[in-house]
Amino acid sequence: MLSTVVFYSASLCRRVVIQSYSIHRRRIHSVIEYPLTHPIYTIWASNTSLGKTLVSAGLSISFISSSTRSSRKKFVYLKPIQTGFPEDSDSRFVYRKFSDFFAYKPLPFSVYASNRVLKASIPASSVLMNDRNEVFVDEVVGKGKKIGDGFKNVEWYEERKLQGNESNESELFPVSEVVCETMYGWKEAVSPHLAAEREEAMVGDSELLNLLKRCLGNGLVGTTYSSVESEVFCLIETAGGVASPGPSGSLQCDLYRPFRLPAILVGDGRLGGISGTISAYESLKLRGYDVSAVIFEDHGLVNEVPLLSYFRDRVPVLVLPSVPKDMSDDLISWFDKSQTVFTSLKEIMISDFLERTQRLNDMPKKACDIFWWPFTQHKLVPEEKVTVIDSRCGENFAVHKSVDWISQQFDACASWWTQGPDANLQIELARDMGYTAARYGHVMFPENVYEPALELAEILLEGVGKDWASRVYFSDNGSTAVEIALKMAFRKFLSDNKVLLDLVNSDVNGRCMDLKVLALRGSYHGDTLGAMEAQAPSPYTGFLQQPWYRGRGEFLDPPTVSMCDGTWEVSLPGKLQSDKSGQECLLVQGAGGMLMIDPLYQRILVRECKNQKIPVIFDEVFTGFWRLGRESAAEMIHCQPDIACYAKLMTGGVIPLAATLASDDVFEAFTGDSKLKALLHGHSYSAHAMGCMAAVKSIKWFKDPNTNMNMMSESRLLQELWDSELVVQISSHPAVHRVVALGTLCAIELLAEGSNAGYGSMYASSLLNKLRDDGIYMRPLGNVIYMMCGPLTSPEVCRSILEKVYARIQEFGQH
Amino acid sequence: MLSTVVFYSASLCRRVVIQSYSIHRRRIHSVIEYPLTHPIYTIWASNTSLGKTLVSAGLSISFISSSTRSSRKKFVYLKPIQTGFPEDSDSRFVYRKFSDFFAYKPLPFSVYASNRVLKASIPASSVLMNDRNEVFVDEVVGKGKKIGDGFKNVEWYEERKLQGNESNESELFPVSEVVCETMYGWKEAVSPHLAAEREEAMVGDSELLNLLKRCLGNGLVGTTYSSVESEVFCLIETAGGVASPGPSGSLQCDLYRPFRLPAILVGDGRLGGISGTISAYESLKLRGYDVSAVIFEDHGLVNEVPLLSYFRDRVPVLVLPSVPKDMSDDLISWFDKSQTVFTSLKEIMISDFLERTQRLNDMPKKACDIFWWPFTQHKLVPEEKVTVIDSRCGENFAVHKSVDWISQQFDACASWWTQGPDANLQIELARDMGYTAARYGHVMFPENVYEPALELAEILLEGVGKDWASRVYFSDNGSTAVEIALKMAFRKFLSDNKVLLDLVNSDVNGRCMDLKVLALRGSYHGDTLGAMEAQAPSPYTGFLQQPWYRGRGEFLDPPTVSMCDGTWEVSLPGKLQSDKSGQECLLVQGAGGMLMIDPLYQRILVRECKNQKIPVIFDEVFTGFWRLGRESAAEMIHCQPDIACYAKLMTGGVIPLAATLASDDVFEAFTGDSKLKALLHGHSYSAHAMGCMAAVKSIKWFKDPNTNMNMMSESRLLQELWDSELVVQISSHPAVHRVVALGTLCAIELLAEGSNAGYGSMYASSLLNKLRDDGIYMRPLGNVIYMMCGPLTSPEVCRSILEKVYARIQEFGQH
């Protein structure tokens, strides 16, 4: 695929710069949160100049009009990004239209309106100072203070009191108000990324979101006019179209995504506007936004007919009367005429908001009532322990905390070790998922071929299967991948021991021998019966869980490696045993408590199995795809299996898919003239297109140093993600028994004794509850806690998490 | 969610019409196909008036300019939909610009150009006749003939010979040519759906696509000027923006989707144009289109910088010089100046085309080399038997047939019985999949709650679980759902037999008794070991396939029901047996050969199990969600299970997801104070958001008579899909043994003896090969062939398939 620009005349030397400058811009480190005590909406448009600000002003009028003597209202309007400033100022426009309207048609009581500007580029702030008397006719308090990055803190403010038309009013009477704010202004009337560049006034995405978060918080605070609680309504107006770049160059629909605020879309009523409106809506959906309404100005083309047909049952469509060319009455009569529409819009927005908060509040109880969670004793999960996840943005959940707050938590368990994407890759995957569903849905696999399945098979054989695997068998999850691997290994073993195969063929009943696996004690390979049988007996395999389980293996106690008190140590087991057939191997035992098995031990074991013609299976479901810093754990122990299983992170963590890779020898054990000799195992969605596409995209993205800043280009290794000094410090803490930090994993075993140790232990729960307050979502494996990031997570994020964990361990140790 | 329009003044009475008129418009019955012998591209734009036609003309000039003495070129330009006609005519514009350019800058040899109009609305065709002398200055042959639907077959034609500048030319010399065609013209310069309505000249989507297919076929045919094979390049220009409605009201990106031709997107270089370009691209991706290049006119805003950042590595971006306001030279100098860009564009398009065809040709061999297909003896699948699936549109595959053709085949095996969507639902699902990936990706399930999982659990309990189930346990596929169901049933059985439970609890080793299932012989429940154990012994469970299989059940031979010679018959089995523990039940045995088990037998069996406190599992993986005409098979046998398994069609067939539903009694057997009493079974992607969302959408869509025309609103049953007379006829054919037609399934057992019977038989393969030529993709179960449609498939489509099958059976019977 080409990735160049063909430009008709200009020099091409800027190509390189263009291609790589934006991908790592959006590493957002601040914790995003916003209140759910009142509606906060973002207003988007399918193009510039479609009247977003008219809609904002109309909503402000409609909302404040509903004030009564006993019900005070506060309408907050935020314009984070304003170009062409101060000539163009949408917050001033809303302030003015609102004021003019109520000056002309006063309410029974007084209303306050204000407009504030927080920061302006130096060129914009100079104009602001010069034009002071011309532009701002109301009371103006302005002071300019130069700050970094080419901005001045202008703190420009104007306000008006709109007198009510009833005489019995006093200053103590509850007062409604409209608060308008421009966050950043640039002088040139061009796209924000151009204005920011030309005026040398740049603002990073994180910084902008942080200021927005503060402004949203301010919406809660009572004003100077009254101590009475007010009903608040907040509107954030974007600049240009939904995918217009913000000041950093990030598209605005990406820039604001961490908040994922509900949206209003201002559509286009002109010729061609149907298409633009639908496409803009689809771009919002492709970022996970919910759109509460579409509204547009009538241009006599009845665009609402096809739009309604498209939006049927999903989104209400509202039509505003044409805006008159003659604006001599300052649009007062237009706003008047439009009030029914704005009131409908406002009601839709408020009702959607109430529905959303109601649902969020109801969800824990409903979940406790009808879900049956895996690996969960429901009696031990009271409603208040249930986490309501509103969305995910990269490595972070947005959770509904207490009654009235949406807040981010870092998904430190990587959602059962599946997760890889950051916010950028997530959006790329979203588009690819939409595309793949539209192009293929799912199509039948056997005897067929289609691009995503073929490309994934190629990528797997060139990557994790390089130099040993020749075939790819797809299934749905790690457990099925292991069941398939076992079937392959059994056949290979029989085929390598022809005497045995003859025995099988000559025995009508065919139950002529007892095949066992050689496996590591403490390993976990999945919960279907075949995968369970390859695990050593434990409470998880007991009669109470699965009466059919027998434990068909010889199980070894391997030596493990971990850091204690700052040094790496090997823990030796009792002694070794050895016996027949398939053997499974993995570098780190995940569910078994994040134990890192001695690599040398594994290498020798594999070599010995190969010498004895025992087929070797690597279960890389957990360890594959850079989970431990390398594409496969096999790279680390420097030997190759006959069969290997992959799942979890393979698709980047969006969707289930598994692959069992096999060598040519294994495959050959199944070929012949009879279908009955083939591997007769399959699942309906074998090699489903969406899973394959997600895997193709994710593996390529992880591997490419242009998209994965953690990838060291020569070695194809991830850089160290966990600060090594901090790891040593933690391992030396008296409350800590051992630490394993490798690739995306940092596991900490807390020193515990008796019932505090082991998988069933609740020992770590108070620690984990506090970490959730710190914005880190962890789940323990008994007294082992772990943090898991993705291959794309920046070391800075990892460091900040580790610091928080260390601080909480210090508190914990003092108990 | 609201679904109304709020309109500022107009009467609201058209609401109802608006909301329901378009959803069933796009039932396309014709078989879509197009040649791959030469590039065929569709040119789209992000808005109106961005210069699609300039790009078309530029490409025509660039392509023909590359002609040489020995290489004849043919450029075909098609404009399917033209409004504002004949004043506006893009095909005439291309014809003119091309002609003017080569009249001014002649090639060494002559070139022909022609422009044709096929159909015009009556108002448009009157103007065409009147304006004849003004509008068409070249040789014009016009005749108007009234046809149905308000169109005239105008067959308007003009052509020019552009003399070469070398003297030694003769008429025999290979001649290059540009062929321009307008398919449908309307007079008013408004959106096609409005023009079609106002001029009472409607054209259905099917009809339009059929004409387009014919026009594309014509591109292959040699012209009158030469018998020499020419190199062809074909361009189809759409009208307006990507999501502008076509004449029927279908969005054009939906209308043309069955062809899924590669695309060129003309973007927008103006202020706000970045957003519109990106959104339009995303709308194309959300319909499964591949975009080869984005091109736009420079307006001095360097829109290419953010566009390149967005399109990085995916799509090349090209920038055209600004179009001069002064057009006095007919843009000749502009076309001249733009030739480098057009030539780059042309080369990108040709190279993408060659890459695509090369890949399609290579895929079968690569698939045979590296895939390991499930249930497939690779030695029996030669390369030429491999089907290359380019895409799916609703129930149809687009397959790559022979070397140079893309053609539709009806997916009559519903891709292993998973499929439900038609073209409309597929596009809805695609958007929802993109949204869900962007909003959630996948998030951790245990102790958490998020909307798609909760909503799906609610829908399942109100639907298939109504009146009996209270809990939903999610997993990944039918096999895991069955493993979970077995674990539930065992515990329930122990819990109901407290003596046994005490025995278990007192026995340290816990292997105190042998639990078995009571199941039906011939049933299939999946390929993981636990699911296999619940199946009767067969070659599929033998030692060669899984040495650990023992067959832990008592297996019954049930009576079956089918139609033979036009009458329904019950086949009685040997005799019944009966024994302990869980029992599985399903109305139709799918993999076992589409046997319909006697419902009365099942009802009695279930009642008897319940009497004896044996927990009952319904395996509804295949039968659930209207597969057999009702939401669940349980509705048909009028009794309820304790546990039931669902998968396959649950997600509409896009993505794997399974659910095991359980009654409260079953759930209670797992509650207690210890985690070890909980059901300790789970998969990483348990209740993954995308699967849940697909299921929510699909189940609602299938159930709603407003979206599913097959749903009879009172009874919640599907209407009969298979023509009953035809079914009787087929069942009476001498080559046919029996027929089962129920819901979306029509299975036909061919009369066969000895090795021709049974699952391994190749008996039906010649029949199925012929049906693939008829555009029907089927897979046999030995001598049983079946057709499976989706719950949304129209009875007309089913009828046409059944007719083709009947015709082939008649041929087959004569062998």
UniProtKB/TrEMBL annotation, chains A, B:
Task: Cite the InterPro entries for this sequence.
Answer: Aminotrans_3 (IPR005814), Aminotrans_3_PPA_site (IPR049704), P-loop_NTPase (IPR027417), PyrdxlP-dep_Trfase (IPR015424), PyrdxlP-dep_Trfase_major (IPR015421), PyrdxlP-dep_Trfase_small (IPR015422)
Assigned keywords, A-Z: Aminotransferase, Pyridoxal phosphate, Transferase
> Which CDD domains does this one have?
DTBS (cd03109)
Q: Which domain of life is it from?
A: Eukaryota
The main location is mitochondrion
Q: Which Gene3D superfamilies match?
A: Aspartate Aminotransferase, domain 1 (3.90.1150.10), P-loop containing nucleotide triphosphate hydrolases (3.40.50.300), Type I PLP-dependent aspartate aminotransferase-like (Major domain) (3.40.640.10)
- Classification via PANTHER family: ADENOSYLMETHIONINE-8-AMINO-7-OXONONANOATE AMINOTRANSFERASE
Q: This protein is called what?
A: Uncharacterized protein
The species is Penstemon davidsonii
